[in-house]
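Researcher: Re-running this chain for the archive, since the previous output was lost when a drive failed. Same request as before.
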Amino acid sequence: MAEFKAVRTSHAQTIGEVNSVYKQVTKDIIKCVSAGGLVLNAIHSVVLLPHAQIARSMVAEHVIKGGWKLMLTGQRFQADAARSRAVYGVVDRLAPLGPVRTGMIDGGEALGMHVTLPYVILGPVAFDTVDALINNWDLPAVTPP
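Model: Regenerated structure tokens:
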């Protein structure tokens, strides 16, 4: 079972925002338990982190929703450092749940925007970890892959 979440990198910059991603992922993991209480064999979570970076001085409003806001805060929140901060923040927060891998797809440039799609893959999540999430217990130690 794989659950997907998509969160803009500009919405995964603070501890609170990364904690929100963690809560969404853990809710999805808990949803992977059947009505009979059985935990599925392999639970994975994929967090997609779309990243739009301003590639020229002007971006038309119809190109991206809230484009004017990106123009005002763009380089601060959309720079490569922001992309890395989002990815590694999510990785650090999800690591206690199981093995984590990352990667990035380069979407290229169009209409003044350069788009990349970093992703974080969690899983498989161990039965003991799922059990701890369901029962609000302390998470078991995760052995690195």
